[in-house]
Specification:
The chain has helices at 2-24, 58-63, 116-126, 182-197, 208-216, and strands at residues 30-31, 35-37, 49-51, 72-75, 88-98, 110-112, 146-153, 156-165, 170-177, 202-206, 220-229. Helices cover 28% and strands 29% of the residues.
Length: 234
């Protein structure tokens, strides 16, 4: 039961991050007990809905979004079948959690991004943004429950991550290292967030190489999720 509750906490934390990010792009989502969703198409890389409880109604979830081609839905418990609504399975990922702080702190070079110019440097180092920039808007820097962390070695921005604090957990996302040391990025990014907000569990999700790096950094898999997309006539 504890694991099921933790997945719900991770899903809610992720939805809160999606909500805050989308608002900086003028997209206002909404929450209820079953899901977070946006009737307006969200920015690239961001889902149009996130289920928040197991057994969410597929039909109800799809009815809350613009389900035209390009729409994506995060099935937080990997228990939905959206194929009947024109969606296809895109990829699977794993929810992650690390309970204990790693013993590192902000003195290791991980500091919150402080201004717009530094945020532009951070986004350039992250390197995945669509052509329309800025992708990460300056409004994020004023959000009391969000910190964009950067590891700076001398004058070089080496790595980064975004942390958002919920009631019971800290979420970690957009983890990167320009030299590919994702294990250190996951570990040190989580420690920086815990140094700021206290020894709360750190959650996130990933797949592939970054998932393996997170496991090496002490994160444990606590559940599965799936991403669905509508590619009909796209």
């Amino acid at each position: 039961m504890g694991g099921a509750v933790r997945v719900q906490e991770a899903a809610l934390n992720n939805a809160e991050w999606c909500h805050a990010f989308c608002r900086t792009h003028g997209v206002a989502g909404r929450f209820d007990t079953a899901a977070w969703s946006s009737a307006q198409r969200t920015p690239p890389f961001y889902p149009d809905a996130v289920s928040l409880v197991p057994g969410c109604s597929s039909a109800r979830l799809v009815s809350r979004v613009d389900a035209s081609p390009g729409c994506s839905i995060k099935d937080s418990f990997a228990d939905l079948d959206l194929s009947g609504s024109g969606f296809e399975f895109l990829f699977a990922a794993e929810w992650l959690c690390r309970d204990q702080a790693g013993g590192r702190n902000l003195s290791k070079g991980w500091l919150p991004v402080a201004g717009g110019e530094e945020l532009e440097r951070w986004e350039a180092a992250w390197g995945e943004a669509p052509e329309r920039r800025p992708f990460f808007r300056r409004e994020l820097l004023t959000h009391t429950r969000i910190k964009i962390f950067a590891r700076v070695d001398g004058a070089r921005l080496r790595a980064g991550a975004i942390a958002n604090r919920s009631r019971d957990v800290i979420g970690l996302t957009n983890v990167f290292d320009v030299e590919g040391d994702l294990e250190s990025a996951w570990s040190e990014g989580a420690s920086a967030a815990q140094a700021l907000w206290g020894p709360m569990p750190v959650v996130g999700y990933d797949e592939g190489e970054s998932l393996e790096a997170a496991h090496r950094a002490g994160f444990k898999t606590i559940g599965s999720l799936a991403i669905w997309i509508n590619r009909t006539h796209a």
